[in-house]
Amino acid sequence: MLFPLLRLTRPANLITAVADVLAGMAIAGYLTLPDAAPAPVGWLCLATVGLYGGGVVFNDVFDAKLDAVERPERPIPSGRVSLMAATTLGAILLAVGVVAAFMVNPLSGWLAVATGVAALVYNRFSKHHALIGPINMGLCRGLNLLLGVSVLPDQVQPWAWLGAVPVLYIGAITAISQGEVHGGNTRTLRVAGLLYGAVIAIIAAIAQSRGQLGTALPFLVIFGYYIFVPLWQAVREPVGRNIGMAVKAGVLSLIVMNAAWVASFASFPFALLVMCLLPLSRLLARLFAVT
């Protein structure tokens, strides 16, 4: 019973959510504070695990009937997890995420509430909409990044606009994923590639403005390699398997993107620490589905 429940939470993806929060903390300047307390880091990491885990569990709850046709091997349609058990798990995880965030400060708590609501709206209403769905999913990641920034509440307003960058990136991945089952079209894939390029350019420009381009560049190069190689394969042959690989690479590469954020706002050693999450995420991706 435990393994199917873990499958519902997408453990490999949970690691990427933690990387989002760490990147947000770097943007706020918290990681370089000499007297930074570890407790807020722990609470916000727990919060994002709860929020992301709860969100993806409800993804399968709302898609149970569709998955029974398209993906019968998933835990709910296969009967290994009941719909009630999945709903309970999702609700508990979301509650844990919100409570953990309020343990840091009220702004973190309300950002957690907004993230949870955005995830439920995506799962229930906007997921299958070609335009609104990707934007909605990107908003979840943007709010998650700001959740990390909120460790220092006064830094949220000046850096709130950076929440648009994950919207572009995750919006691109979500648009690609809409062709994962039946195949996609090259136009969507090429547009996603342009959005990928825009994200890299924005991070590079910010790093340059902060005099940190040399520190961030290695991570940006690795990031570009990880996302563009599978995307190009999908463009050449837009079948379900190639698209699935492109989506998987895009999700896991969030850790590298977040390492680039940390390199741009903190230091190379801190960025390397975030990169250390990548092998763990890739290992979990061998055991549990990413999409």
Automatic annotation (TrEMBL):
Compartment annotation: Membrane
KW Hydrolase (keyword) present: no
Positions of transmembrane segments: 12-33, 39-62, 83-103, 132-152, 158-176, 188-207, 213-233, 270-289
Highest taxon of the lineage: Bacteria
Cellular component, GO annotation: membrane
InterPro entries found in the cross-reference section: Prenyltransferase_related, UbiA_prenyltransferase, UbiA_sf
Pfam family, one: UbiA
Keywords linked to the UniProt accession: Cell membrane, Membrane, Transferase, Transmembrane, Transmembrane helix
Membrane topology of the entry: Multi-pass membrane protein
CDD domains xref list: PT_UbiA_1
UniProt-recorded Gene Ontology molecular function terms: transferase activity, transferring alkyl or aryl (other than methyl) groups
Principal localisation: membrane
Name listed for the protein in its UniProt record: Polyprenyltransferase
Source species of the chain: Rudanella paleaurantiibacter
